[in-house]
Amino acid sequence: MTSHNVEAPARATGFNLFGRKIEAGLLLLSALVLLAAIVALELSQGNELTGNIFVVTGGYLITFLVAHLVMLWKAPEADQVLLPVAAMLNGLGLLIIYRLDLATGLSLANSQMMWTVIGVVLMLLVLVFLKDHRSLQDYSYILGLAGLVLNALPIVWPTSMNADANVWISIGPFSIQPAEFAKIMLLLFFAMLLVNKRRLFTVAGKRVMGLQFPRVRDLGPILLVWGLALVISAAQNDFGPALLLFGTVLGMLFMATGRSSWLVIGLGLAAIGAVGVYQISDKIQARVSNFIDPIANYDGNGFQLSQALFGMSWGGITGTGLGEGYPQQIPVAHSDFILAAIGEELGLFGLAAVLILYAIFVSRGFTTALLVRDSYGKLVASGLALTIAIQVFVVTGGVSRLMPMTGLTTPFLAHGGSSLLANYVLLALILRISDVAHKPKEAQQ
Q1: Sign of torsion, CA 328 406 414 421?
Q2: Is the pLDDT confidence value at 18 over 80?
Q3: So what's the pLDDT on residue 370?
Q4: Which of 44, 243, 257, 425 has a CA-to-CA distance to 297 between 20 and 30 Å?
Q5: What is the mean pLDDT of the chain?
Q6: In this structure, what DSSP letter does residue 443 have?
Q7: For residue 220, what pLDDT is reported?
Q8: Whole-angstrom Cα distance, residue 158 to residue 402?
Q9: From residue 296, how far is each of 290, 302, 312 by CA, in Å?
Q10: Tens-digit pLDDT profile for residues 324-370
Q11: Quick check: 123 and 427 in contact, CB under 8 A?
């Protein structure tokens, strides 16, 4: 990736109780929106206001207040919008899960609040102990090996989960999806590899139709990732995590070299891999069949997608209103299809607002990549932002029948501990890079 000499203004560092006012204001606004929405929801259902409301909203406010104070202490120069955007998405997820709890009698909002607290604590621990993102380069090979082990762990680890994809492991009463953490570790490894071997990927090769293609012997790294993705897909009967890993590494490779030929090669390999996985996986075949015509499989595997499409169609532009729809009729609406629940009750406007929040998050991540001066930081920040972008695109495409479902979760929004914890670690890494990027040039040496 080409280095950008963008000079960030020098600012006073250290703890300043009155610093980061934008972040503080946005976090307070997100807490007020969550409180007002939950109160309105309870009143619209004719329910009395109970202490459970304040368990969720109070826990949310205290959690992010503590996060803000630690940011003042440990990352005073970091981007002031990233944390509030993640908090707002997290709050919207809590709201929709709370709404589904009212309809189903479950208490998933409380568990989601618990995972939110743990996730934010994990984010703060990363910020406290990781002084400089560049120190991660010294552990790149260990991180890469750990990422491979975590990816393969569900294949050999017994689980109590009754799922159609072998992506979970059970530890006592908890179930964990190791691939959520593995994607970050592997991204850090490939960022180091691309920085150290950059010349390898830009050497001359054959020119075909205006594109400069690399030599065959220089295709090793991308072929390795492609083969790894195929093995993961076949062994775990799931194409989503492999697609996310391959897409992110391919995007990082393009950003590191600026060569469109890598995209052509990558898309070709992705197409070959997709056809190969389709041939051996009944699950993938069923998902493609549901994508083509979910109504034809309404009484079977197409029921979930059909219900989601019916709900979003009923919601239309403005939605049915919070608490006025039937999103609980969509199986696993709190997780895989939380965007469909939002589309039904908040309409196209609500879905567009959520996607805009993701667009802001991704754009701030790429801005961080432009501001930081070292190549490793640029690739890590842009790779992490790209991971979120790909994940949101794939999930939104699956829910809206733009593409087959992949089983990926909606970052910060959907119910699930593994996803939430991993995404807060991802956020911490971007915030650390952003803090370094905004410091004076001499402080980055």
Answers
A1: positive
A2: no
A3: 96
A4: 243
A5: 87
A6: G
A7: 72
A8: 34
A9: 8, 7, 19
A10: 999 999 999 999 899 999 999 999 999 999 999 999 999 999 999 99
A11: yes
Rounded to 10 degrees, the C-alpha dihedral 253/259/260/264 comes to -60
Q: How far is it, in rounded angstroms, from Cα 416 to Cα 407?
A: 13
Work out the angle at residue 86's Cα, subtended by the Cα atoms of residues 82 and 89, and round it to the nearest 5 degrees.
140
Confidence of residue 260 (pLDDT cuts 50, 70, 90): confident
Q: CA 281, CA 237: separation in Å to the nearest integer?
A: 7
In the numeric block, which tokens belong to residue 61?
Answer: 């406010």
Euclidean distance between CA atoms 379 and 256, whole angstroms: 7
Instruction: Retrieve residue 418's tokens.
Output: 């593994």
**SS3 state of residue 393:** helix
Q: Do residues 430 and 365 lie in contact, with contact meaning Cβ atoms separated by under 8 Å? A: yes
Which residues lie closer than 8 Å to 413 by C-beta, 6 or more apart? 89, 90, 92, 93, 96, 338, 339, 354
- The average pLDDT across 52-79 equals 93
Could you tell me which residues come within 8 angstroms of residue 131 by beta carbon, excluding any fewer than 6 positions away?
none
Asked if 369 and 339 count as a contact pair (C-beta separation under 8 A), the reply is no
Averaged pLDDT, 146-170: 77
Residue 219 has pLDDT above 80, yes or no: no
Report the SS3 class of residue 169. Answer: strand
Give Cα separations from 345 to 61, 314, 348, 419, 436 (angstroms). 25, 9, 9, 24, 41
Residues in the chain: 445
The pLDDT, as a whole number, for residue 169 is 84
Half-sphere CA count of 421, side-chain side, radius 13 A: 16
Neighbouring-strand partners of residue 212: 207
Q: In 3D, which of 326, 332, 291, 295 has the Cα closest to residue 312?
A: 326
Which two structure tokens, joined as six digits, stand for 112?
């989601």
Q: What are phi and psi of 163, to 5 degrees?
A: -125, 155
pLDDT bracket for residue 109 (50, 70, 90): very high
CA pair distance 160, 173, nearest whole angstrom: 9
Alpha-carbon distance 113 to 134, whole Å? 32
pTM > 0.85: yes
Task: Indicate whether 242 pLDDT > 90.
Answer: no
Q: What is the pLDDT of residues 272-315, one digit of tens each?
A: 888 887 888 888 888 899 999 999 989 888 999 999 999 999 99
Averaged pLDDT, 416-434: 96
Alpha-carbon gap, residue 375 to 369, rounded angstroms: 9
Which bin fits 324, alpha (ψ -120 to 50), beta or left (φ > 0)? alpha
Neighbouring residues of 121: CB distance < 8 A, sequence distance ≥ 6 = none
